[in-house]
Specification:
about 500 residues; 6-stranded mixed beta sheet; about 35% helix; binds adenosine-5'-diphosphate
Length: about 500
């Protein structure tokens, strides 16, 4: 038999990618295409759903071409996607009724303020695990139904379908299978993560007819087969998960207490909490994790708004760096931070502080402060912020972290990873395959299709690139953290004047 592969379709916010993995979990082909972002008004963000579908199909075909293989050699397709982004389309024609409203879009912020003022915050948090926000799909669906003529009536007659990007892609791939997975459903703010059903009361609150919603299925199961003309043969579509949950799975964080931390533009930390949906007291979200079979799995999620982006800022605005990776050289050169702390609260602070008025701060400057120390302070800030989210997770989950798995662009910085390990007092593990999101989708699909047998088999494929162990003395760690927290207070205090 000819060699078989798994095709991961990784539909991100700015680009669509397709990766072919082999049985060893190695990347054998990859194609990528960026697509247009639309900003029709300040704070609004849209995509064209047809761009998303066509681009994703194109890169999928390109990946097969690159490796010179036919559809029969693809054992299954796994889909992973930008989460929360909302698409409504006509069931008959397959045409979107409106552009995709992207997760970043703030157009429904006032609608959410109204719902919170009406006292819905606790109910929404208890049922969906989410803190009410325009970020999630619910208010975006409501907006489309409210603002487009005739769409509500058609929706009520069952002629309109809703989907997040996974649903839209699977519907197009299969020619009409209308499904989503638990992880994506849990980001709509309409899904009760405990009963694992769409919540009738929340649907009523947002005036959304239940008939437009997809059927919710596990993240690893055969949803349907692709139409034969897309790839020149039918391929089972067998896995789906939102990007962060796919990365958690791709990092093989299958056990409760296992954590992955992504250092991209922003930072995302997810902790597997197993069968228990842990409610956060520290501003973290409770969400569904990808798992095998019908058994539910949950995760705690915390985000840092500015992570690798602070290095981008040093590079592009302050011009202290030619390239982001050069930050490592300067940080090592500095030897220490010289008492300088940088709080990159450019857009307020996320978990666990949740303060939208806080602004960036550099404290501890002296006449001898060097460029290298400023750069070092920026890298250290990435690690401190992640440590703060980590501590909040430990508190919520009632356990102490021994190790975390990392990915994302800035995780390639060895200084940052060693400092992260030191400041957390935990082992930091960087995997050989940094495409953890696509790998997670491939694992989910391959397990459902019988390409891989078990989680144990997959875990053996997961290879380490580098391990960072804590080396810092406890006194020093505590002293640095104390100063960092004082710097954060300054940033929060500065925000007070705006309130
Ligand atoms: P995203 O997927 O969010 O676009 P990436 O995972 O590609 O982001 O990471 C890019 C970010 O990481 C950029 O903000 C960049 O400045 C930062 N970055 C990339 N490489 C390094 C490095 N070696 N050291 C520090 N920061 C880095």
């Amino acid at each position: 038999m000819m060699e078989q592969f798994i095709l991961a379709l990784d539909q991100g916010t700015t680009s669509s990618r397709a990766i072919l993995f082999d049985r060893q979990g190695k990347i054998r082909a990859m194609a990528q295409e960026e697509f247009t972002q639309y900003y029709p008004q300040p704070g609004w963000v849209e995509h064209d759903p047809r761009d998303i579908w066509r681009g994703q199909l194109k890169v999928g075909r390109l990946a097969l071409e690159q490796l010179g293989i036919k559809a029969e050699q693809v054992a299954a397709i796994g889909v992973t996607n930008q989460r929360e982004t909302t698409i409504l389309w006509d069931k008959e024609s397959g045409q979107p009724v409106y552009p995709a409203i992207v997760w970043q879009c703030r157009r429904t912020a006032e609608m959410i303020d109204g719902i919170v003022a009406d006292g819905w915050r606790e109910t929404i948090k208890a049922r969906t695990g989410l803190i009410p926000d325009a970020y999630f799909s619910a208010s975006k669906i409501a907006w489309i139904l409210e603002h487009l003529e005739g769409v509500r009536e058609k929706a009520e007659r069952g002629e309109i379908l809703f989907g997040t990007v996974d649903t839209w892609l699977i519907w197009n791939l299969t020619g009409g299978v209308h499904v989503t997975d638990y992880t994506n459903a849990s980001r709509t703010m309409l899904f009760n993560i405990h009963t694992r059903e769409w919540d009738p009361e929340l649907l009523e609150l947002f005036r959304i007819p239940a008939c437009i919603l997809p059927q919710v299925k596990p993240s690893s199961c055969i949803y349907g087969k692709t139409r034969d003309f897309w790839f020149g043969g039918e391929i089972p579509v067998a896995g789906a998960a939102g990007d962060q949950q796919a990365a958690l799975f791709g990092q093989c964080c299958f056990q409760p207490g296992e954590v992955k931390s992504t250092y991209g533009t922003g930072g995302f930390m997810l902790m597997n909490t197993g069968k228990e949906a842990v409610s956060s007291e520290s501003g973290l979200l409770t969400t569904m994790a990808a798992a095998l079979g019908e058994e539910p799995a949950y995760a705690l999620e915390g985000s840092v708004f500015v992570s690798g982006a602070v290095i981008q800022w040093l590079r592009d605005e302050l011009r202290l760096l030619d390239e982001s990776p050069d930050s490592e050289f300067f940080a090592e050169k500095a030897k220490d931070n010289g008492g300088v702390y940088m709080v990159p609260a450019f857009t307020g602070m996320g978990a666990p502080y949740w303060n939208q008025y806080a602004r960036g701060m550099i404290v501890g400057l002296t006449r001898s402060t060097s460029k290298a120390q400023l750069i070092r302070a920026a890298l250290e800030a990435i690690a401190y912020q992640t440590a703060d989210v980590c501590r909040a997770m430990e508190k919520d989950a009632g356990l102490s972290l021994k190790s975390i798995q990392v990915d994302g662009g800035a995780s390639k910085n060895d200084f940052l990873m060693q400092f992260q390990s030191d400041i957390l007092g935990a082992v930091v593990t960087r995997p050989a395959c940094v495409e953890t999101t696509a790998l997670g989708a491939a694992f989910l699909a391959g397990l459902a299709a019988g390409y891989w047998e078990s989680l144990e088999e997959i875990k053996k494929l997961w290879a380490v690139d580098a391990l960072f162990k804590p080396m810092m003395e406890e006194d020093k760690r505590q002293a640095l953290l104390a100063d960092w927290h004082l710097a954060v207070e300054c940033a929060l205090h500065w925000g007070e004047r705006k309130k």
